[in-house]
Every structure is written in structure tokens, then in C-alpha cells.
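Practice problem 4.
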């Protein structure tokens, strides 16, 4: 009988928005969780910073001594503190003592994932982290398990709800970045300090995790090229619209195959124009979506709520059920897979496309000068469009694929041409043939 089994004892570190939901759902449906795991699931303690901030948590569960809770008589540590320390030290402590871990800490995994995986391997403990990327969307487990026998070539997605809300609002209203960010803050879509979101740090940490899982390679946070959205202007949004495109902040992780057959991994986060008929283009508001391209499975898209207490708690509880099942049957979850050990390609060597908008002099020969500069740098032009007269004269160029370094060098040289008054905007183009 399930009720006769020893309970799975859980230590909960952190009881903010997500932790509160995890505790509420566990305590509200104990019979369901026992049936799903094969044993009762019991929260034995909740570590918080300030006891008086949690009046709805039973007093006997609360503690400010997270280390003592981890060292106590528990089987699973659920970490929802966030940040690097003390989360790193507490989880290493748990794993080294053989206690399994569930975490949603993307920054910690991006910076210290290999250390945590090594500790888990050494002790035989599990480490699950579905909530670290894309909230409620079941994404990491498919990459880690369901697609483990396939060859993934590309993972491209919208993995930050704040920036997606801002860019979606700019597209629909024509408003500027600053006023849209202010509105996002008023509506609760942006933090008081939105730096991690709008400067791309959050998405880059998630890209680190996605690339590591997809390509069986250890990718560090410092390997991921990162650009935020603060430089995106209404002019960029309008330019995208004129070409039937939309601007999104994308996390892009891909397998790059050189002409000699050698492979590497590219991981980057930046704004980009994508066609309006691309599956990711219609993802609006604070939602997340990730597009996976695999050799045998083909194209797959994962879509849903990427943040929030209840959606993220769903991912945490899914991991907790998996860990508890493993404990009941004396099994183990998937381990780190870094066997491919592919090199990470620097951004300068990564093939990309650009949309470039130029203010130019209205006189003969300007187009030929600009085209010659592209040609001199071995960058092929896909589309060129000339518009306006006099002070309103402009050129729009869309390139074929070339290395990012070559494209940047080309833009720098174009900016120095006497006939080019200003390089108005430069944005990468993704999601369509090169």
C-alpha cells in the first residue's frame, strides 16, 4: 500500500511566487501526488529569509537556516532561491550527500552546471531543472530524453516573456522602447530592475542550457553571444513591417557544419527580423515558444506560458514527481550528456544575415559604391531597395549569409563612405532561406 511506504521528504528552499505555489499544490493534493510517485510526498521544511513574510506557511515548517534543512532528514531539495549564492553551495551540499535536487535556477546552471552535474554523478543523486527554461513548457525533458536518439540541428526560440511583450507592443502600437518598457512595468510584465531581461542575460542563460542539452556539449555562459533590445527603435519595427517581418529577441543554438565536415556549436541571443509566417512570429505578449529542428523528428514547436507562479510551479512539480518515482524504485534519472564535446564557435565566425538601413545622398553612383563595398568584403546582397529623394533618400540592403565578422566589417566601411549620411539601423535576419 502506498500509504504504508516511507514518505519522500522534501526540503523547499525559497517560498516566493513559485515556491508558494509549489507548497500550495503539494499540500492541497497529497493523495494525487502519492498515487503518481508511489509514496507520500511530505514537505519537511521551508527555508526563507524572513519568517514574518510568510503567514500562510505553517509555522512549524519555516526556518531561516537553509543549510541545516539541507543537512537534515530529507530526500529531495527543491531550490527556488535564485541567484548564484547561497544556492550553489546549498545544492552542492545536497548532491554530495546523495540528496536529489530540483531547481529552476537558470543562472546557476549556466555558470556552474558542470560542477553540479559532477556532484550528482559522484553521489548517484538526480538533478532535474525543467523550470529553468520556458516556465511551464515541457522543453528540456524532450531534449534530454525524448530526442536523445535523434540529431538536433537547431533550437531557436523566444524564451523571455518581458522582452517579447515589449517587442510585441512596439509592433502593434508603434510606440518607442522606453514608453513600452514603462507600460510593461505598470502591468507587471517587467521587474523594477529589468536589466536581466532587456539586456538579454536571462535569455542567454537559457540558451546556455538549451545548447548544452541539444548538442551534448558543455556550453558556458561566457560562450553565448548576447545583445538586448534597448537599441530596437520604432524605425526598426517599421522596416520589418515593410518587409512583412517582425522583430523578436531570439535565443539561437545551432550545429554548424564546416565545408570540411567538422562541426561546432553556435549559441547567441539577439534581436532579429523573422518572416510573419514563421511559427515564432505569431507568439505575442509574455508567451514563450521554442522551435526545434531535428534530423529524424523534423520541425517541432513548444509553446506556452514562460513565467509566473503557477506555470513554473507546474514544471517544478513535474520534476519532483520524476525524482520521487526514481527514489521509490531505486532508479536514476538522466545524467549529463557531454560526449560530443564540440567546440563553441565565436560570434565572428557564425554565419548570419543582415538587414541594413542607410540614409544616403541623393546622387548618382551611391548604390554602386555601397554594392562595391559589400563585394569587396565577400558579402553577397540578396535584396536592395532605394527609396525617397533629397534629404529623404535611403537604401535598404538585405544580405545573403556571411560570417558575422564580415558583415560587421562591411557595415563599418559603409559608414565611412562620404555618400552615406547615416547607418540608421542594422539588424540580423533569421528564419528564412539564406
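Answer key:
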Amino acid at each position: 500500500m502506498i500509504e504504508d511506504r516511507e514518505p519522500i521528504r522534501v526540503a523547499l528552499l525559497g517560498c516566493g511566487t513559485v515556491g508558494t505555489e509549489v507548497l500550495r499544490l503539494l499540500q492541497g493534493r497529497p493523495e494525487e501526488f502519492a498515487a503518481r510517485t508511489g509514496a507520500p510526498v511530505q514537505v519537511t521544511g521551508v527555508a526563507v529569509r524572513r519568517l514574518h513574510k510568510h503567514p500562510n506557511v505553517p509555522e512549524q515548517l519555516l526556518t531561516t537556516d537553509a543549510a541545516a534543512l539541507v543537512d537534515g532528514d530529507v530526500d529531495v531539495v527543491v531550490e527556488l532561491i535564485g541567484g548564484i549564492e547561497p544556492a550553489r553551495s546549498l545544492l552542492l551540499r545536497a548532491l554530495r550527500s546523495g540528496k536529489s535536487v530540483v531547481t529552476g535556477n537558470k543562472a546557476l546552471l549556466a555558470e556552474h552546471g558542470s560542477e553540479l552535474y559532477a556532484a550528482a554523478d559522484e553521489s548517484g543523486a538526480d538533478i532535474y531543472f525543467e523550470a529553468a527554461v520556458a516556465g511551464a513548457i515541457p522543453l528540456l525533458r524532450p531534449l534530454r530524453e525524448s530526442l536523445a536518439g535523434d540529431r538536433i540541428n537547431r533550437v531557436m526560440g523566444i524564451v523571455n516573456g518581458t522582452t517579447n511583450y515589449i517587442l510585441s507592443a512596439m509592433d502593434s502600437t508603434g510606440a518607442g522602447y522606453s514608453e513600452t518598457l514603462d507600460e510593461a512595468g505598470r502591468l507587471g510584465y517587467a521587474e523594477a530592475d529589468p536589466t536581466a531581461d532587456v539586456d538579454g542575460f536571462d535569455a542567454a542563460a537559457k540558451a546556455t542550457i538549451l545548447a548544452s542539452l541539444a548538442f551534448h556539449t558543455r556550453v558556458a555562459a561566457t560562450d553565448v553571444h548576447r545583445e538586448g533590445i534597448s537599441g530596437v527603435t520604432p524605425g526598426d519595427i517599421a522596416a520589418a513591417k515593410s518587409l512583412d517581418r517582425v522583430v523578436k529577441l531570439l535565443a539561437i543554438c545551432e550545429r554548424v557544419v564546416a565545408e570540411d565536415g567538422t562541426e561546432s556549436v553556435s549559441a547567441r541571443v539577439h534581436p532579429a527580423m523573422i518572416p510573419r509566417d514563421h511559427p515564432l512570429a505569431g507568439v505575442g505578449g509574455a508567451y514563450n515558444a521554442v522551435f526545434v529542428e531535428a534530423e529524424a523528428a523534423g520541425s517541432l514547436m513548444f509553446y506556452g506560458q514562460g513565467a509566473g507562479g503557477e506555470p513554473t510551479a507546474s514544471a517544478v512539480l513535474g520534476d519532483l514527481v520524476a525524482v520521487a518515482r526514481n527514489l521509490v524504485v531505486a532508479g536514476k534519472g538522466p545524467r549529463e550528456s557531454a560526449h560530443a564535446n564540440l567546440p563553441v564557435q565565436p560570434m565572428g565566425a557564425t554565419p548570419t544575415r543582415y538587414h541594413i538601413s542607410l540614409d544616403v545622398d541623393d546622387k548618382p553612383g551611391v548604390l554602386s559604391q555601397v554594392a562595391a563595398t559589400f563585394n569587396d568584403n565577400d558579402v553577397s546582397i540578396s535584396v536592395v531597395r532605394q527609396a525617397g529623394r533629397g534629404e529623404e533618400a535611403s537604401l535598404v540592403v538585405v544580405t545573403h549569409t556571411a560570417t558575422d565578422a564580415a558583415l560587421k566589417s562591411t557595415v563599418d566601411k559603409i559608414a565611412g563612405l562620404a555618400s552615406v549620411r547615416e547607418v540608421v539601423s542594422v539588424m540580423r535576419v533569421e528564419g528564412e532561406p539564406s
